[in-house]
């Protein structure tokens, strides 16, 4: 496994991060077997994935609990990235949320503590000050942000507080951050951790049409606003999305690589990307995703993937919010 040194942090993360959201099942994911979840996390660790991304919001602490259960005995050898939700951005609440996270995780420090989504109602500088205090007190080793757009990134930069990462939705069929967020992150030295890197399974080719995608995963702006759980007001672009997926699949087949591995390898090749954070619901999926590290893309392959996904990138535009028309990524 390759590793990556985050700025303003005295540790490295693995270049594939295990995402601990789906392993709790429930909202967005449905039924999940606990043994499968524990096996998935241990499979990841046993094969060099040191870094695990979780959040209090994932199952109201259940994901943090599960990580402690799966790998608590390996605490010194894993990197825990967790998050505080925007409802808790008042400084005193950041501290309380962190204490709760530490309890859930059964540990006395979190390696990377991230602000989950911007909260324009609370001065960001105050929230960052609380994160710095947690770092000074040894409760966290570094802090980062998530879903932060240009304006919030500007505030971070001007504040003098040093963020180590920005976690954003980024994958072959959702390239919105390329318009202005990724360039700013590159220039500010804020590496990107990519969430939903295989677009919640779509980039494995498991769904042949929009109709096959379960409603809770069809909430994104790729799909029509008429899907029952959609929160956006867009028409969506289902035909173009599935045409693009078909072309990616064809290219993957021609190169004898799985679509999922190709998609993750493409992310790893992007300037400014530290690591994709990929979910896996069982050990078998984790094994398959790990094969990404064997894939070497040539510049021609990368540019072909850029070309075939460009129409969809342009159609979805620069709104980096996967789920809402009025972007919460500010
Ligand atoms: N900061 C944020 O706002 C934010 C938002 C979303 C996610 N995240 C983080 O990013 C992580 C990953 O994102 P994500 O879970 O949304 O999406 P993802 O990693 O793109 O997709 C994960 C899902 O794809 C399916 N899958 C995984 N590997 C597979 C394989 N080899 N073959 C077939 N299917 C496979 C699994 O679901 P099925 O088997 O059910 O198809 C799995 O749960 C999360 O766990 C979380 O840590 C952060």
Automatic annotation (TrEMBL):
GO molecular function list: oxidoreductase activity
Domain called NADP-dependent oxidoreductase: residue spans: 15-307
Record has Phosphoprotein as a keyword: no
InterPro entries per the UniProt record, alphabetical: AKR, AKR_Detox_Biosynth, NAD(P)_OxRdtase_dom_sf, NADP_OxRdtase_dom
SUPFAM superfamilies referenced in this protein's UniProt entry, alphabetically: NAD(P)-linked oxidoreductase
Gene3D superfamilies, per the entry: NADP-dependent oxidoreductase domain (3.20.20.100)
Keywords, sorted A to Z: Oxidoreductase
PANTHER family: NAD(P)-LINKED OXIDOREDUCTASE SUPERFAMILY PROTEIN, NADH-SPECIFIC METHYLGLYOXAL REDUCTASE-RELATED
Protein's name according to its UniProt entry: Aldo/keto reductase
Organism of origin: Cyclobacterium marinum (strain ATCC 25205 / DSM 745 / LMG 13164 / NCIMB 1802)
């Amino acid at each position: 496994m390759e590793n990556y040194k985050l700025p303003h942090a005295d540790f490295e993360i693995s270049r594939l991060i295990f995402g601990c959201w789906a392993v709790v099942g429930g909202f967005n994911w449905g039924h999940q077997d606990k043994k499968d979840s524990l096996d998935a996390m241990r499979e990841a660790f046993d094969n060099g994935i040191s870094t695990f991304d979780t959040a209090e919001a994932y199952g109201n602490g259940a994901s943090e609990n599960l990580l402690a259960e799966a790998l608590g005995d390996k605490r010194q050898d894993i990197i825990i990235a967790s998050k505080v939700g925007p409802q808790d951005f008042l400084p005193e609440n950041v501290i309380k949320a962190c204490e709760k996270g530490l309890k859930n995780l059964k540990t006395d420090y979190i390696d990377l503590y991230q602000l989950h989504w911007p909260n324009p109602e609370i001065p960001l500088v105050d929230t960052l000050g609380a994160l710095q205090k947690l770092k000074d007190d040894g409760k966290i080793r570094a802090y980062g942000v998530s879903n932060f757009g240009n304006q919030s990134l500007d505030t971070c930069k001007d504040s003098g507080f040093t963020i180590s990462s920005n976690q954003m939705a980024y994958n072959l069929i959702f390239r919105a951050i390329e318009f202005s967020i990724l360039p700013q992150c590159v220039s500010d030295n804020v590496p990107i951790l990519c969430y939903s890197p295989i677009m919640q399974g779509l980039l494995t080719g498991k769904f042949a049409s929009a109709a096959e995608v379960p409603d809770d995963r069809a909430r994104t702006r790729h799909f029509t606003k008429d899907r029952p759980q959609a929160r956006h007001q867009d028409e969506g672009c289902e035909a173009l999305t599935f045409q693009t997926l078909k072309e990616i699949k064809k290219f993957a087949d021609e190169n004898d690589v799985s679509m999922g591995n190709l998609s993750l390898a493409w992310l790893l090749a992007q300037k400014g990307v530290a690591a994709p954070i990929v979910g896996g619901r069982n050990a078998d999926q984790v094994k398959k995703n790990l094969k990404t590290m064997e894939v070497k893309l040539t510049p021609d392959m990368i540019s072909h993937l850029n070309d075939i996904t460009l129409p969809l990138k342009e159609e979805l535009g620069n709104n980096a919010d996967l789920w809402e028309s009025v972007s919460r990524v500010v």
